[in-house]
Design a protein that fits this description.
The complex is a heterodimer of chains A (377) and B (257). By secondary structure, chain A is an alpha/beta fold. Chain A has helices at residues 8-18, 33-45, 56-67, 79-94, 121-125, 143-160, 170-174, 214-234, 254-269, 287-296, 310-318, 337-349, 358-376; strands spanning 3-7, 23-26, 49-52, 73-77, 99-105, 136-138, 163-169, 176-180, 206-207, 238-241, 248-251, 274-279, 281-283, 299-304, 324-328. Chain A has two domains: 3-234, Thiamin diphosphate (ThDP)-binding fold, Pyr/PP domains (Rossmann fold), CATH 3.40.50.970; 240-376, 3-Layer(aba) Sandwich (Rossmann fold), CATH 3.40.50. In chain A, helix 2 links the parallel strand 2 and strand 3. The longest helix of chain A is centred in the middle third of the chain and has 21 residues, at 214-234. By secondary structure, chain B is α/β, with parallel strands linked by helices. Chain B has helices at 29-42, 77-87, 99-105, 107-115, 156-159, 165-169, 186-204, 219-222, 226-240, 250-253; strands at residues 49-53, 69-71, 92-98, 121-126, 129-130, 136-137, 175-182, 209-215, 244-248. The chains are: A alpha/beta (377), B alpha/beta (257). Chains A and B meet through helix 3, helix 4 and strand 9 of A and strand 1, strand 2, helix 2 and helix 4 of B.
């Protein structure tokens, strides 16, 4: 198929449909709404289920119901809406169902704003919903990658009977870029042996997340985490840029990773031996490559559009072996490549330290920048 | 010894297995379950049905029914049922919900499902309290009624009035069949069964959303004997929640059953 200029939200919606999406349930929220709008037209055209739900609670519980049938199902939302979905996500995880969530993250907390951000990292990667569960989280950095990862998300959801989140942000959702859409997949005919179907003569099937017997619930949770270990072993994905001879490594995902790449290229032009590690799966996290790099390089710079959430995951792997610094813009502010370049140069030029917390140093610089802005303004 | 013809006049319905229920003595959940199983068997839909259980006393309803079942989050059964029905429009999909589940935490989901005319059947158990958590005040608790969270009796000045769910849902265009019946004696139970049959027929024929509200007893949390609970229901609940057909769409009225 030829590449076409297409908006991120629309591209993801179309990709999901071509990947065999049979039931979509959603609720309008900026900057995700075009995804819902596109499917409101396309799904009925193909005789597939589309419901604009009464709320994100309604939407995720419709997904929960559809997922019980084993059909490919998804919802999409943005940060405040995803917060509302946490209940349903936990139930879906507890019932071990495949389902896909697209989170087009916006600035928060609270109502925040509709600008791009990555502040949902913690609620998506480290829980949000109650209880012991994990979900696979894929973080694209371009419209094409969002398309490809959307297709992959359905395969992974089914393979592991797991929730998969495509973690985007407002800029990826709203941006138009050339992308090649995937071919149409035929809809799956066979019904998985665990799914409810209402078929005469077959033994009854019950899908539930309740387990009043704690030792049995414990066994379930251990089984879920054992499956997660398998996911960690098989499904880690990341991209390496200029890492062969890198003395310094920037770590960033999604849009922040993409901006960081521009900065890394500019730094290379200035002779700085810096590379970029861009996790594509932020869960499972690319621990192994980061561990190897921790032995080789001089220091790390984590770049995010939040207050340093993935930063903690990086620090857990680096384990104080090398200095880790942090640069972030938050609340819907998107960093410029120049700012990241400055942060790289500062990493290279300033004395490195293993002491203290990188977030504290970053906050100090942010406050100084605000003060300077006030003095100049 | 004289040989007599033995005629079986009463047996467990096929869709209802012989697992002893966890319900308290005198509770009408078991009767309501049985009615659903009888109706689905009579309609020949047992193998074609997917049930959605709620959170509340009937959270384990799926242990007693012999067909596919899922278990929803508190109040979300109509949304979950929507997800199933939209994927399987030719299956019978129903929710079985209590008053805390449906009329409090799940009011958004039930109103939206009814207004969409979702082809679902809802069996709604109204026993004026939160049974599973030990008898707290529900949206259906009567004025003055004592519960563990309205120990001096529901004070309408501070705690508001009961919600009349059937009346409320009957105002929605998508709702085609909304009625209230009672479970306090055999005559009313027979009428409840007829209503449940109609509700499932409405769904099967694609005529719209259907709900049967069933006034039910909760002897344990009401602190009464089962017999006294039935009397209390008829004397106190029926005046507050009058029995009747609140919405019977034209197409439903014309149904010949």
């Amino acid at each position: 198929m030829a590449r076409e200029l297409i908006k991120g939200n629309v591209a993801v919606a179309e990709a999901a449909m071509r990947a065999g999406l049979e039931a979509y349930f959603g609720y309008p929220i900026t900057p995700q709404t075009e995804l819902l709008e596109h499917l409101s037209k396309r799904m009925p055209e193909l005789g597939r289920a589309f419901v604009q739900a009464e709320s994100e609670l309604g939407a995720i519980n419709m997904v929960y119901g559809a997922a019980c049938t084993g059909k490919r199902t998804m919802t999409s939302s943005s940060s405040p809406g995803v917060s509302l979905m946490m209940e349903g996500l936990s139930y879906i995880a507890g019932t071990e169902l495949p389902a896909v969530l697209v989170d087009v993250v916006r600035g928060g907390p609270g109502l925040g704003n509709i600008a791009p951000a990555q502040g949902d990292y913690n609620q998506i990667v480290h829980g949000g919903g109650h209880g012991d569960y994990r979900m696979i989280v894929l973080a694209p950095a371009s419209v094409q990658e969002a398309v490809d990862l959307t297709v992959l998300s359905f395969d992974l959801a089914e393979k592991y009977r797991s929730l998969v989140c495509v973690l985007m942000d407002g800029s990826l959702g709203q941006m138009m870029e050339p992308a090649e859409l995937p071919p149409f997949q035929p809809l799956k005919k066979e019904i998985p042996d665990w799914a409810v179907a209402g078929i005469p003569g077959r033994e009854k099937r019950v899908l539930t997340s309740i387990n009043l017997n704690p030792p049995l619930q414990e066994k379930t949770n251990i089984r879920l985490m054992t499956r997660w270990q398998e996911i960690e072993k098989n499904e880690v994905r990341y991209k390496e840029y200029f890492l062969e001879d890198a003395e310094y490594v920037v770590v960033g995902f999604g849009t922040a990773g993409r901006i960081a790449l521009s900065a890394v290229r500019a730094a290379r032009e200035q002779g700085i031996k810096v590379g970029l590690l861009r996790p594509i799966t932020v869960a499972p996290f690319p621990n192994e490559i980061l561990d190897e790099l921790s032995e080789k390089v001089k220091a790390f710079l984590v770049v995010e559009m939040n207050i340093g959430m993935m930063l903690e995951d990086v620090r857990l792997v680096v384990k104080g072996r090398k200095p880790v610094e942090f640069f972030g813009r938050v609340g819907g502010v998107v960093p410029y490549p120049d700012e990241v370049l400055e942060a790289i140069k500062s990493l290279v030029e300033s004395p490195l330290t293993l002491e203290g917390h990188p977030r504290d140093r970053w906050l100090e610089r942010m406050r100084a920048m605000f003060a300077e802005g006030e003095n100049n303004g | 010894m004289v040989d007599t013809d033995v005629k079986l006049v009463y047996q467990r319905p096929a869709g209802f297995n012989d697992t002893p229920t966890h319900y308290c003595p005198g509770c009408t959940h078991g009767v309501a379950h049985r009615l659903v199983a009888e109706v689905l068997e009579e309609m020949g839909e047992l193998g074609n049905t997917i049930g959605v259980a709620p959170v509340g006393c009937s959270v384990f309803a799926y242990n007693y029914f012999d067909f596919d079942f899922v278990e929803a989050a508190h109040g979300r059964a109509p949304a979950m049922a929507t997800g199933i029905k939209r994927v399987y429009p030719d299956r019978i999909v129903f929710t079985y919900q209590g008053d805390g589940d449906l009329a409090s935490i799940g009011m958004g989901e039930i109103v939206a499902a009814a207004s969409r005319g979702e082809l679902l059947t809802v069996i709604f158990i109204n026993n004026t309290n939160y049974g599973m958590t030990g008898g707290q005040m529900a949206p259906t608790t009567l004025p003055g009624q004592k519960t563990t969270s309205s120990p001096t009796g529901r004070d309408v000045e501070r705690q508001g009035y009961p919600i009349q769910t059937a009346e409320l849902l009957s105002t929605l265009q998508g709702a085609s069949y909304v009625v209230r019946r009672s479970m306090h004696d055999s005559r009313n139970i027979r009428q409840a069964k007829k209503a449940i049959r109609t509700a499932f027929e409405v769904q099967k024929r694609g005529l719209g959303f259907s709900m049967v509200e069933l006034l039910s007893t909760c002897p344990t949390n009401w602190g009464m004997t089962p017999a006294n609970a039935r009397t209390w229901l008829s004397e106190h609940m029926i005046p507050a929640f009058p029995l009747g057909d609140y919405k019977v769409a034209q197409a439903v009225a014309e149904l010949k059953l």
